[in-house]
């Protein structure tokens, strides 16, 4: 089974994989701070989409596709065009390098997130494990 | 798309004379008391005076510079208002100077906010010159800043491309008087930069040649520089190798040996170069189990192995051990004089700190917490890694 990106099913599958990951659990044991992923329109994707990923003490208690950015509050927001997200999820773009090149924009408490590089890497690894459908080619 | 950052590098004999030609009004010299005491700051001050700059010196930087020290240095900079910051020393003064420069330009920031994900807007007030006095750190050409948090007793990796120095003066005369053990430790640091920069998952065509060449230079010239400190050819090549390795790993990042070495340095007080190079053979063996290709390729380029895969990678790990051993450096934490009790007491912290060190991001094989614990135990006991 594969999951369309972006969708409620996709982000819930990512949340499920994180909850199964011992590596994520140990690396994010003290982490508190939800994420919102903003998928911006580009040539292959026509509307903005917002994925909410709840993250608390090594677990992901909640995840959902939002109808708007205002629907939930998140400590961190990562924004990028659809094509950039696709490269990240397909493993063609390291998201940290993407953020350094400003291909992805990160908003939130950077001092805090810099202390959890392994947890960030585990989230990205789990993203790559979600079987993903790309409806826009 | 990726990028490569570098200062203007003036290298070789008399590179220091470039200071006589800089234009400006005020220079803040950032250094440490040992560098002042051994007379290495005097020629810098002399040349800045000939350029008619008013000079103030901040020489309070300690080994493994602490966050309160750079805050103090930034306060001094804000009061003195320099248009040049001139960093003289090993990695500690150079990293401290980068942080002082950023906080001088951006007093609204805390040190921990110096990350690659923000725009700093530097060079409105001053520019940075670095003058390395050891042949190892590479900090003269990197944007990385490693500071120590005295409260949590851990090292924090900071930095932003913007805070790469403007000019690096790589003059071998500034490092030719290094005592033997400092030559060994800093030279092994350069080797670790070169090897980790080559095998980092962020390596590129722009960094591979620099790292491979620097590693070859260290294998060839470090034993000579250690055996005969007056061998200026060896000293010069080592000084250049350290900067080449800095350019390489500064743009591709280091890896797991640095993550573990930072934890060891902050917790057990080992000198940086000794700590990271002590871990290197073990992390090479660990990575070789799952992703030996890059290590094997480097082993072949260096001529230490004609084999492939894990066999070649393990041969490189052994070559690193042989080099360290030939110069009398310890091959384990036990040999380094760390008691088993002290080690076991801080093992949980070592694992936690290494796991969350930024250099772990670019490791080709990411260890679990359990594997990291076993790796530290192997480094303590001096046992090859077979897991």
Specify the CATH class of chain A.
Alpha Beta
The number of helical segments of chain B is 13
Stated plainly, the CATH topology of chain A is called Nonspecific Lipid-transfer Protein, Chain A
Number of domains of chain A: 1
Main sheet: strands, sense, barrel of chain A: 5 strands, mixed
CATH architecture of the largest domain in chain B: Up-down Bundle
Written overview of the protein:
The complex is a heterodimer of chains A (137) and B (387). Chain A has 137 residues and is α/β, with parallel strands linked by helices. Chain A has a single domain (3-129), classed as 2-Layer Sandwich (Nonspecific Lipid-transfer Protein, Chain A), CATH 3.30.1050.10. Helix content of chain A is 36%, strand content 20%. Chain A is built from six helices and seven strands. Chain A has helices at residues 8-20, 22-27, 82-89, 95-100, 110-113, 117-129, and strands at 3-4, 35-40, 49-53, 63-66, 76-81, 105-107, 132-133. In chain A, the strands form two sheets. A five-stranded mixed sheet of chain A has the order 4-3-2-5-6. In chain A, a hairpin with an 8-residue loop joins strand 2 (35-40) and strand 3. The longest helix of chain A is centred in the N-terminal third of the chain and has 13 residues, at 8-20. The two termini of chain A are 18 Å apart. In chain A, 41% of the residues are buried. The model of chain A has no long low-confidence stretch (mean pLDDT 92). Chain B has 387 residues and is α/β, with parallel strands linked by helices. Chain B has two domains: 8-174, Rossmann fold, CATH 3.40.50.1970; 180-381, Dehydroquinate synthase-like - alpha domain (Dehydroquinate synthase-like, alpha domain). Chain B has 13 helices and eight strands. Chain B has helices spanning 33-37, 42-50, 67-80, 91-105, 180-199, 205-227, 232-252, 256-268, 272-290, 293-302, 309-326, 340-355, 369-381; strands spanning 8-11, 26-30, 54-58, 84-89, 127-132, 144-149, 154-159, 167-170. In chain B, helix 5 (180-199) runs parallel beside helix 9. The radius of gyration of chain B is 20 Å and the shape is globular. The model of chain B has no long low-confidence stretch (mean pLDDT 96). The A-B interface holds A 22-23, 26-27, 94, 96-97, 99-101, 103, 106, 110-111, 114-118, 120-121 and B 1-3, 110, 112-113, 115-118, 156-158, 161, 201-202, 355-358, 360-361, 366, 368-369.
């Amino acid at each position: 089974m594969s999951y369309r990106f972006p969708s409620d099913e996709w982000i819930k599958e990512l949340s499920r994989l994180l909850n199964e990951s011992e590596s994520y659990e140990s690396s994010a044991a003290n982490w508190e701070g939800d994420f919102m992923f903003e998928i911006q329109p580009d040539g292959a994707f026509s509307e903005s989409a917002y994925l909410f990923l709840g993250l608390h003490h090594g677990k992901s208690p909640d995840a959902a596709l939002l109808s708007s950015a205002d629907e939930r509050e998140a400590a961190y927001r990562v924004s990028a065009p659809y094509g950039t997200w696709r490269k990240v999820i397909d493993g063609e773009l390291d998201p940290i390098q993407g953020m350094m090149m400003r291909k992805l924009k990160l908003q939130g408490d950077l001092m805090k997130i810099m202390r959890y590089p392994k947890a960030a890497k585990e989230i990205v690894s789990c993203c790559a494990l979600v079987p993903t459908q790309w409806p826009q080619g | 798309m990726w990028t490569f950052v570098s200062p203007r590098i003036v290298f070789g004999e008399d590179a220091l004379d470039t200071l006589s030609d800089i234009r400006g009004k005020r220079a803040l010299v950032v250094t440490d008391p040992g560098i002042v005491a051994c007379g290495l700051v005097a020629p810098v001050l002399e040349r800045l005076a000939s350029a008619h700059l008013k000079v103030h010196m901040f020489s309070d930087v300690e080994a493994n510079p602490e966050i309160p020290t750079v805050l103090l240095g930034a306060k001094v900079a804000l009061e003195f208002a320099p248009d040049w910051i001139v960093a003289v020393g090993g990695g500690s003064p150079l990293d401290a100077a980068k942080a002082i420069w950023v906080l001088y330009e951006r007093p609204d920031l805390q040190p921990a906010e110096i990350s690659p994900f923000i725009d700093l807007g530097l060079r409105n007030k001053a520019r940075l010159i670095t003058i390395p006095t050891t042949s190892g750190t590479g900090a003269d050409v990197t944007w990385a800043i490693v500071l120590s948090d005295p409260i949590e007793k851990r090292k924090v990796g900071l930095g932003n491309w913007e805070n790469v120095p403007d000019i690096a003066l790589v003059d071998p005369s500034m490092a030719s008087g290094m005592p033997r053990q400092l030559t060994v430790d800093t030279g092994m640091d350069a080797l670790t930069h070169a090897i980790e920069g080559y095998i980092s998952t962020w390596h590129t065509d722009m960094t591979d040649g620099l790292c491979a060449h620097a590693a070859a230079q260290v294998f060839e010239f470090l034993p000579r520089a250690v055996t005969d400190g007056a061998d200026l050819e060896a000293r010069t090549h080592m000084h250049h190798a350290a900067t080449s390795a800095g350019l390489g790993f500064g743009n591709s990042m280091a890896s797991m040996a640095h993550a573990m070495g930072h934890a060891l340095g902050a917790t057990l007080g080992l000198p940086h170069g000794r700590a990271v190079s002590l871990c290197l053979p073990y992390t090479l063996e660990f990575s070789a189990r799952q992703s030996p290709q890059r290590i094997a390729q480097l082993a072949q380029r260096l001529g230490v192995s004609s084999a492939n895969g894990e066999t070649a990678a393990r041969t490189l790990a052994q070559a690193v051990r042989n080099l360290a051993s030939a110069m009398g450096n310890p091959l384990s934490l036990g040999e380094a004089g760390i008691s088993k009790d002290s080690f076991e007491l801080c093992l949980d912290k070592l694992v936690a700190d290494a796991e969350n060190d930024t250099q772990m991001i670019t490791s080709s094989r990411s260890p679990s917490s359990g594997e990291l614990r076993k790796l530290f135990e192997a480094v303590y006991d001096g046992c090859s890694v077979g897991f």
